[in-house]
Every structure is written in structure tokens, then in C-alpha cells.
Design goal:
Blueprint lengths: L2 H7 L3 E5 L6 E2 H6 L5 E4 L9 H6 L2 E4 L11 H11 L5
Parallel strand pairs: 1-3, 1-4, 2-4
Length: about 90
Amino acid sequence: WTAAELLRESGFVVAACALTDEAVCLDELAADPPDRLALMLGTEGDGLTQRAINAADLSVRIPMAPGVDSLNVAAASAVMFWALRPAA
């Protein structure tokens, strides 16, 4: 079992934070998030492996200004967690 399979078995949707052609925008995911969501964030520099991205249910990207293609993992996780916080 991979970690993604275990999470999925426990009822989570697994989202890889990655710049892929099919990645959904974080704003779109935040507008209608699943009840249980697990985020996969990669290392600074290399990001997630292709195997990890393939294991996820979907890829999600953070909208950024033109010319900016990545954030360090601390900044990326802060943005993701804030955008996906439960509604008050």
C-alpha cells in the first residue's frame, strides 16, 4: 500500500500540489473542496516525484503572477492551508 492508497481507503481525496497540464487552480478547489482532503507537497527544488503525482487523485496549482512558477514548501503550504480553511 502507498500512503495515497491508505488515505483514499480512509475516505480522503488526495491532491498533489504540482504544475501539471491537468492541474486545477487552487481557487477552483477551494470553491468546492471535498469533505476530506489530503495535500501532498514536495521538497523545495525538485517538488513531488512523478510517481507521487500519478498516485494522487488530482493535481492542484497555486495561481501566481506571470514568470513565477514555484514557491518554497513553507509558503506553498501556508497558501494552500489558508485557501482551503473551513468556512466560518
